[in-house]
Design goal:
Elements lengths: L9 H29 L7 H19 L2 H23 L6 H20 L12 E3 L7 H6 L1 E3 H19 L1 H11 L1 H6 L4 H25 L13 H11 L4 H23 L12 H12 L19
Helix pairs in contact: 1-6, 1-9, 1-10, 1-11, 2-3, 2-4, 2-9, 2-10, 3-4, 3-9, 6-7, 6-11, 7-9, 10-11, 10-12
């Protein structure tokens, strides 16, 4: 059945399906960065972690024929990068933003170097659940063919939101992020907590990379990421450091990313390439809208470099 059979309905269906597919990496990267920034540290190395996680997941999936082992390998690699970042930032007078940029370049360089033998081999893909089984329309079935990682991300966003508000771990993370001195007065070690938070954030970001290489687009190459790791930092600011806000904002970014292909599906052939820039324009708009020399960022941890 062609797209013309359902007319303009193919556009919202394409945006819906594209939003789900495109948003999944944003969900995991933004949730990971939320955990990291809630502890009072910012990690701009997420793009490198995302790309290295994509490579590690694909390589392990090729070697073991198991996509889930690939996801675990990506998480381990991301946690390793996070620990490295956190360890360096624990030294006095070290700027976490500069370290993050260096980590981004390191992660991408290592991914390109170690990933060259895995460009041609085909890895098994992560499974998806066909929520559109009830429909005879291919467009509906494709739009509602939802990857398991998207559902895991939705549940994880809810759990993180609840735990930050209602658990001792969430309280400790928020205290360290708002005041290192108050944390020390409570007998806590800010450096140790930030180290663990950065490792956790790196592991989650790498899951986003695993999704890219093992499901959508479902291959490994050196151009697999389009700045999603860096855009996720803006997404966290837009979401005001709320896990549920990150999930909603990721869907918004995903919908913006799906706009160009959706218009192409109904025959818009002139200028639709401009809509491919929608996620980047949205990122720029968010950064401008949330920047002001006269007011602080609502919900921002006080110990973050961008708030001091």
């Amino acid at each position: 059945m062609a797209a013309d059979d359902i007319g303009l309905w193919s556009v919202p269906l394409a945006i819906l399906g594209g939003s789900i597919r495109v948003s999944t990496p944003f969900i995991f990267v933004s949730l990971g960065e939320t955990v990291t920034e809630r502890s009072g540290r910012i990690n701009l190395g997420l793009e490198g972690i995302l790309v290295f996680g994509a490579m590690a997941a694909y390589a392990v999936a090729v070697l073991t024929a198991s996509p889930w082992l690939g996801v675990l390998a990506a998480m381990a690699a991301g946690a390793g990068f996070g620990l490295f970042h956190g360890w360096i930032c624990s030294f006095p007078k070290v700027n976490d933003i500069a370290v993050g940029i260096a980590l981004m370049l390191l992660g991408m360089g290592l991914a390109f170097f170690f990933g060259k033998p895995f460009i041609q081999p085909v890895a098994p893909h992560l499974p998806a659940i066909p929520f559109g089984f009830w429909s005879d329309m291919p467009q509906v079935r494709v739009a509602l063919d939802i990857n398991v990682l998207f559902l895991i991300g939705a549940v994880l966003a809810l759990l993180l939101w609840w735990s930050l508000r209602n658990t001792r771990t969430g309280l400790v993370l928020r205290v360290v992020g708002d005041s290192a001195d108050a944390a020390r007065a409570m007998g806590l070690s800010p450096n140790r907590i930030r180290l663990l938070a950065t490792a956790c954030g790196g592991a989650l970001a790498a899951v986003g990379g695993a999704y890219l290489s093992l499901y959508y687009p479902g291959s490994w190459n050196e151009h697999i990421s389009s700045g999603q790791g860096l855009m996720a930092v803006a997404l966290v600011i837009f979401a005001r450091w709320s896990p549920l806000g990150c999930f909603a904002a990721a869907l918004l970014f995903g919908g913006a990313g799906a706009l160009g292909p959706a218009l192409q599906s109904v025959g818009v052939t002139h200028g639709y390439y401009l809509f491919y820039a929608a996620p980047y324009a949205l990122t720029l708009a968010i950064m401008i809208a949330t920047s002001s020399p006269k007011r602080s960022l609502a919900g921002a941890p006080e110990e973050l470099s961008i708030t001091r």
